[in-house]
Amino acid sequence: MANMNLYSRGDKTFVIINMVLIGIFTLSTLYPFVYITAMSFSSGFAATAGKVVLTPVQATAEAYNYILSDRMFWVSYGNTFIYTIGGTLMSLAFLIPGAYALSRPQLYGRRFWNLIVAFTMWFNAGLIPFFLNMRDLGLLDSYFGIIIGFAVNGFNLILLRNFFEGVPSSFEEAARMDGANDFQVLWKVYVPLAKPAIATVALFCMVARWNGFFWAMVLLQDEDKIPLQVYLRHTIATLSDDPEFTATQLNASYSFETVSAAIIVCSIIPVLIIYPFIQKYFEKGILLGGVKE
Amino acid sequence: MSGVKLDSIVKAYGALQVVHGIDLNVNEKEFVVLVGPSGCGKSTTLRMIAGLEEISDGQLTIDGRVMNRVAPKDRDVAMVFQNYALYPHLNVADNIAFGLRIRKESAKTIDASIEEVGNILGLTEYMDRRPADLSGGQRQRVAMGRAIVRRPKVFLFDEPLSNLDAKLRTQMRAEIKRLHKRLGATSIYVTHDQVEAMTLADRIVVMNDGRIEQIGTPMELFLNPANAFVAGFLGAPPMNQITATIADGGNGPVAEFPGGSLALAPLPDLQNAVGKSVIVGIRPEYAQTVTEPGPGSVSCDLDLVETLGSEALLHMSLGNKPFVIRTETLGNIARLNSVNGFTADPELIKVFDADTGLALSGQTRAA
Ligand SMILES: Nc1ncnc2c1ncn2[C@@H]1O[C@H](COP(=O)(O)OP(=O)(O)O)[C@@H](O)[C@H]1O
Ligand SMILES: [Mg+2]
User: How many whole angstroms separate alpha carbon A23 and alpha carbon A9?
Assistant: First the structure.
């Protein structure tokens, strides 16, 4: 065994370099999480003085006390759930049938429709026209406006369409021979087959919704409708301008840095909880075995 | 009457016509095999019957009803696909039941049907497995189960065995035949494998280049091919074809070719064709070996002997063209290496017009 050598020296170097690069990349992605978590459990004084590097300094949960007792934190948290769940479901409701239709060779004017979708990936109308458009449709300041306004995204649509295109047409044909109509072919055959792709797209939608900030800030005036990310920004803005906050800062058990960090940690937790459940769909395609490979 | 009738069926993709007017009557309970080289339009024809391809022209009737514009699900036909197309997310039982559930059959009917089909196809033990966990032969059976469970009027098969290895293919071939005997359903079966065609068919339809070359029972086609294409397509190894000219041999027509001549059957069609260029067809099985060529035999050189067991293939050169003879080995093996010619029964020699490829010798032998 000792002199069994399946890898040449060059191969070994290559593997080692890869491991080092992956290691650096992993650490650089992981560090912000660690930093923010440490910050959220540190005292306001330590945070403001820039003493937090890796672990909490003068550990305290005061920042959490502060935000968890703020009504707006809970309202915005709830809103983020509404936007994320509602938005993802709305997206899937459009993306699945849309992508399926675009993938069918028999779709009339298929090239044209696909071109229109691709067009939106390169060009968009811009901030002001979009805002005016939403205003004229009466979709400002409404849950529904946020949910429907950003339901379809060209990239996700094309991603899913490509997956559907890759499914051998004999599945559709077999289902048709079995008596299925278009809707049943999609729902009972293609959707189950596309689970991994749908999970991917759903995760993209969820993450985008969860982190969605800019348009919510632009389109929502009503405080009771804002999502967590907008609340986070409000908090940072209010606290950093608050003279009382700055005045008491030297012996403060929390500061706007630790409060912001605590909000960020709270907003990351649900994603961490959900991810393992979705991950199993990424592992391998389900297509194996249905057709002779 | 669950017959299928194709009347001048045409398929064109845009300007490209790939099926040029097919006429075919499949009788109730008949097993018809469409056979031909790859790309000749077999699948297209079958898919038009299934309703998966639009019919460009002509008329399709199933059970006396015109089906051109009827949706696949309303044609009461079932199809077994080459790649099986089993639903990978469903287990065997659910795969088989899929069509029944779509058609909203009662749970009781569905359970009974699954059980029956499971028994017929020997799938009872595998009902809970997903397709990924089945062997090729088992998947093939599930695909058949999905077709037979609905008791359709017509079964369509598109090269259902071509993904199996040779041994399994032979086994499944016999199983399909048995199943057809048992269920007696009208079946149309597509293959490019002439052995499958010969063994399964009540009648074979030989196709080439979007047209039907000949329709008949396996033995009719084997013994009396209508043209050189059919002659070359059916039978393994294929029929030897020698370019020749018909001459008057005194007491009957003879075929003369570089390296020899052969007496032909005294048919009027051949007698009247003296001077014509023809192709002479001799099946490897119907050539008799000789070791001392004399009058009436053709001499040729032995290149190679392939021993298959009970039979041997002798690869000869006639002029410089290959000529294959299939012969028994028993009690014969010692002299095989000294074979240097052959004779052939005039009744078993086929003659085809060299220009049109059509048979000149008519029906010389009854099946
Ligand atoms: N969708 C299509 N568009 C254009 N030509 C096609 C299409 N499908 C099949 N063909 C052509 O039709 C001919 C017959 O095909 P097919 O019926 O599949 O042959 P096979 O006898 O091997 O089953 C082939 O030449 C093929 O290239
Ligand atoms: Mg084919």
Answer: 21
Rounded-to-integer distance, Cα A188 and Cα A28, Å: 43
Count other C-beta atoms under 10 Å from residue A24's C-beta: 10
Per-residue pLDDT of A201-240, as tens digits, reads 998 899 899 988 888 888 888 889 999 989 988 888 887 7
| Cα B264-B195-B244 angle, rounded to 5 deg | 25
Q: Which domains does chain A have, with CATH numbers?
A: 11-69+228-269 (no CATH), 72-219 (1.10.3720.10)
B chain contacts of residue A173, beta-carbon cutoff 8 Å: 50, 52, 72, 79, 81, 85
Q: How do residues A40-50 score in pLDDT, each as one tens digit?
A: 999 888 888 88
Angle at CA of residue A250, ends A245 and A252, nearest 5°: 55
- C-alpha B42/C-alpha A176 separation (Å) is 20
Angstrom distance (rounded) from CA B231 to CA B361: 13
Q: Are strands B203-208 and B31-35 parallel, antiparallel or unpaired?
A: parallel
- Indicate where chain B has its CATH 2.40.50.140 domain(s): 237-353
Residues paired with B20 in a beta bridge: B10
Closest ligand 1 atom to residue B36 Cα is 21
| H or E element in which residue A217 lies | helix A214-219
- Ligand 1 pocket test, pick from B44, B190, B193, B211 with the greatest ligand atom count within 8 Å of Cβ, gives B44
B137 interfacial to chain A (CB closer than 8 Å) = no
Complex ipTM > 0.90: no
Q: What is the mean pLDDT of residues A143-172?
A: 92
- Distance in angstroms (rounded) separating the CA atoms of residues B249 and B287: 20
Residue B258 Cβ < 6 Å to ligand 1: no
Which tokens is A95 given? 């993306």
The sheet with strand B260-263 has its strands ordered as: B260-263, B253-257, B240-248, B277-282, B350-353
Taking the mean position of all CA atoms in its chain, how far away is CA B240? 19
A249 vs A270: CA distance, rounded Å: 31
pTM over 0.80: yes
For B237-353, CATH number? 2.40.50.140
Closest CA relative to residue A256, chosen from A48, A92, A21, A28 = A48
B4-229: CATH class: alpha beta
Terminal-residue alpha carbon distance, chain A: 37
Across-strand partners of B207? Answer: B212
